[in-house]
Amino acid sequence: MSTKQEVESEGSKSDALLNSHIVVFVKELRTEGYAERTLKKKRSVSKAFAAWMRRNGISLHELSESHIAAFVSRLPRKRKARANLERSVLGLLLQFLRRRAEVPKLLQSRDAPPGEELLERYVTYLRKDRALAENSILVYAPFIRDFIRDELSTGSCPSINALDAATIQKFILGHIPDRSSEYKRLLATALRSFFRFLFVCGELSRDLSVAVPTVRKRQRPGVPAFLSPEEIKRVIAATDQSTTTGRRDRAILLLLARLGLRAGEVVTLELNDIHWRSGEILVRGKGGFNESLPLLADVGKALAQYLRVDHRTKSDRRVFHRVYAPPIGLAGPAAVGHIVRHALRQAGVQRRGRGAAHLFRHGLATQMIRKGASLAEISEVLRHHSLNTTAVYAQVSFEALRSVARPWPVLEGER
Q1: Does CATH number 1.10.443.10 belong to domain 229-400?
Q2: Which are the catalytic amino acids?
């Protein structure tokens, strides 16, 4: 057999193998709840990619992201929607093939930017040792990546031990012009955290976190924006209980309104966290603290209805999932914020302030203090670790104090 015939034979075998994997790939997507119309599109894209690989002599065992990029780049720029579809489908296919060990796993590039390994260690430290929320990690990491790139990779410091207070302050001064006070505060916080990490893990012989200047956070005057009891009732009542989306959203809104959960705590809630017999719910709070709260009757009823009718997957133990396939857990706190904003629009309630999900949490605290609850009681319900955080709600009843305040005593004749 000639060399050309051998190549063609190998190509046909590889092509047949890929096509057989595509059949299994589509079956797997079907079990995840994708509609047949969607499956037809994904099968079509996968088949077209397999044919393109055959024409270009690309074997299955060498497939990588670069081949997907080359395949998608053949489309004209005006077909952006089609390009996004193909990129998404082929990304799923590549993950599937790697799980089945048909394609080599993604290896770290030898040309990866210097310091990337240090950044990964820092992120692992934040996640495992400091138990930071994923949102906080996503905020801190870009600041530290910039610092590593500017000062350690291409800057004047030949090594970590060469870092000093002057280098740190020069970096900060170069990044804060024309920036908001919040950006400056977060930059300083991230750097302080990074230098503590370097000191703790032994990369630095001294703690340089003290060299990072403190940026004062301006407290907004007054009480945080909140929803009134009437508005909360309207928002919850506006959810459509005849749909999966409505049942899921109602359960989420009740958790926010009745128990004061944060958006991130709703996302991380798992099936094992709901203790039906004891009537409690375990909340995975900030900083890795887990605390039990009472499972109120209306909250438990909404959760039971949603889980009994709409919870479709056994592989993911999280309570709340996407409505559309694949039925994976909500991406993060932003997804809960989107659900709340949609519910507010449906109920015709005007959103006030920042943090849509926190409007319910602030509403709960406001109701409690107006009913005579102490700051310590509110702090316990909201799971604050400092009474200073709760003290802002004391302003809620300030106007009420005017009505009970007695006039200032004065001597006769001074009036």
Answers
A1: yes
A2: 262, 286, 358, 361, 384, 393
